[in-house]
Design a protein that fits this description.
elongated, alpha+beta, 8 strands, three-stranded antiparallel β-sheet
């Protein structure tokens, strides 16, 4: 379908607006042509696809997200390190990915689980326990089946050694203190990556740090993450161990 110069101009303006803000309310007047004119809707999505991105539409918002591969906007490790100076190397980045997967698996699930997580959240203490259990279980599996490290595409030995070398947290007068030497600090660093994307909220309650998922996180899970093969593979690996623990 040919597009007029005006339609392309409007479509490009909408796309770069999404690129700048990443997630926006869909009822903004600026976005009205995207929903009211089929040509502009189509052209905007073509621009997104050509850039290796995609537009997710929810009842309340538009999300612009990066495709897993081939995007001109995919962040390199160097760019991520410049933004988050506490991430020292790729090994630490791999560990952060696993921490986030464990957290997402805890927050994902049926409607009942989701409602409970929205109300009560997940404490960092519980998150640390879940990661401890996951790493210990993977280590046991690795002893029995050394080939799973290659099959899963996870550097199990490297990640679990890095994790278990850390203390849970440093005690600062009865309250956890973030330190680059602790499991607590790695979890807070990972959580802040989601906070910056407005997918998570962090609440301090007495001596507990509580992580509360946002509706936008569930939109990403349903419309994006659940369709990615790698996400589904990691989730099945983590959930399989969780279900095994529950059966004992």
């Amino acid at each position: 379908m040919p597009f007029t110069a005006e339609q392309l101009h409007k479509s490009a303006s909408i796309y770069f607006y999404l690129l700048r803000h990443k997630m926006v309310d869909r009822n903004q007047d600026f976005l009205a042509p995207y929903f009211s004119e089929q040509e502009i809707h189509e052209a905007t999505n073509i621009i997104a696809k050509q850039s290796g991105t995609m537009i997710l539409e929810t009842p309340t918002k538009l999300h612009l997200v990066v495709e897993p591969e081939g995007s001109v906007y995919a962040s390199s490790f160097t760019q991520l390190k410049d933004k988050h100076s506490r991430i020292k190397n790729r090994d630490e980045l791999d560990l952060l990915h696993i921490l986030l997967m464990v957290l997402l698996c805890e927050m994902d699930g049926d409607l009942l689980i989701r409602n409970e997580q929205e109300i009560s959240g997940v404490t960092i203490h519980k998150w640390i326990d879940l990661v401890d259990q996951t790493m210990a279980r993977w280590d046991q599996e690795l002893q029995k089946q050394p080939e799973i490290e290659a099959e899963w595409g996870i550097a199990i030995v490297q990640i679990k050694d890095m994790w278990f070398a850390k203390q849970p947290y440093e005690d600062g007068g009865g309250k956890p203190v973030a330190s680059t030497k602790t499991k607590y600090s790695y979890c807070t660093l990972a959580a802040n990556l989601l906070v910056e994307e407005r997918l998570l909220r962090i609440v301090e309650d007495d001596d507990q740090t509580i992580l509360l998922p946002t509706d936008d996180l569930y939109d990403r899970l349903d419309l994006l993450y659940h369709d990615h093969d790698r996400f589904k593979q990691l989730k099945s690996i983590i959930d399989a161990g969780r279900n095994q623990d529950a059966s004992h």
